[in-house]
Amino acid sequence: MDPAKWMLEAITLGQKGRITAPPNPWVGCMIVKDGKRVGEGWHESPGTPHAEIHALKQAGNLAEGSDLYVTLEPCSHFGRTPPCVQALLKAKPKRVFVGIVDPDPRVSGEGIRILKENGIEVICGVEEEAVRKSLAPYLHHRKTSLPWVVAKAAISCDGKIAAQDGSSKWISGKEARSDAHCLRAESQAIIVGSNTALQDQPSLNVRDYPSERQPLRIILDRRGRVNPSQADRIVGNELSLLDLLKDLGKEGILQVLVEGGGKVLASFLNEGLIQELVLYTGPVILGEKGLAVFDGVEIHTMAQAKHLKLKGVEVFGETVKLNWLT
Ligand SMILES: NC(=O)c1ccc[n+]([C@@H]2O[C@H](COP(=O)([O-])OP(=O)(O)OC[C@H]3O[C@@H](n4cnc5c(N)ncnc54)[C@H](OP(=O)(O)O)[C@@H]3O)[C@@H](O)[C@H]2O)c1
């Protein structure tokens, strides 16, 4: 297999830690000797060994002279665990293939420099785009100190999130709603507006997907209309959305899921705070009086239109999931 294929396998391994690794990155590592895999590992949760350490342990003596594939640059600093580069120097692989340089200022090229200085060949940027996509929330957080914001809504074929009377159950199908629970599990916080909290009484927890962790439930409620027991945090007063995200970023939250309603989604969009948009389009039409997905975004002419990049399309029963990057 060529290096790209091994790196893609390492990405798949890393994804096993997608829900449990945050605030750490969900890194995967693969060790190959004479064309055969001799060790593999992924990072499960903070405080436990990193992917490289698991893979080196599995490979044992076979790690010497091997090719090691790791999705993110090995760490060079003492955190909750000792630096991985030291373990690598001891194991003496011949070559280390790195998916992407770690933007964390405590690493940021240092891990690669140490390996090279000690005579290990380092090849950077293998399948970098795929790695960038798989680690997007982590990379964004380390670069900006803000969480990656995913805006999500179930919409009708004509782009509405609720009927005129505010009812919205159910626009998307059962299978799609299960997928939305995976999105919740991948997020460390969920945000909704007070109208949604009052109208839908959402539980804001992960039910339909295996996860031992629950996201932080946040309701934006400036007028104190919501029952505080509905959330872990009620955000009132005049805290701006950016300041809220800054606080969440400081708490180590890598991904926030904004679940509406239309006014809250519009505020996030107007302030340029959305990185990813997930729309579950269900097989219904709600007409012109239905509620708009972005209620309060004014676009008067095509020249002002916001352009997005398609990330992916999936079909769940009769619901189409469209995934966009802003
Ligand atoms: N189809 C879907 O996926 C989906 C998802 C969610 C909701 N919904 C539907 O959407 C409807 C509710 O949406 P909505 O647009 O009326 O209300 P909303 O977005 O849920 O809540 C808006 C309220 O949140 C509070 N808020 C606090 N900070 C805000 C900020 N920075 N920007 C905007 N709002 C802020 C404001 O009330 P205060 O002044 O009191 O703070 C505001 O009136 C319901 O019918 C619900 O069923 C559908």
Explain what the structure shows.
The chain contains ten helices and 15 strands. It is α/β, with parallel strands linked by helices. An eight-stranded mixed beta sheet has the order 10-9-8-11-6-12-15-14. Helix 3 packs parallel to helix 4. It is elongated and about 65 Å long. The two termini are 35 Å apart. The model has no long low-confidence stretch (mean pLDDT 96). The site of NADP nicotinamide-adenine-dinucleotide phosphate has 29 residues, from strand 6, strand 7, strand 8, helix 8 and helix 10.
Helix vs. strand class: alpha/beta
Radius of gyration: 22 Å
Shape descriptor:
elongated
Distinct small-molecule ligands in the complex: NADP nicotinamide-adenine-dinucleotide phosphate
SSE sequence, one letter per element: HEEHEHEHEHHEEHEHEEHEHEEEE
Query: If strands are numbered along the chain, what order do they take across the biggest sheet?
Result: 10-9-8-11-6-12-15-14
Query: What is the straight-line distance between the termini?
Result: 35 Å
Number of helices: 10
Beta percentage is 15-25%
Low-pLDDT segments? none
What integer is the average pLDDT? Answer: 96
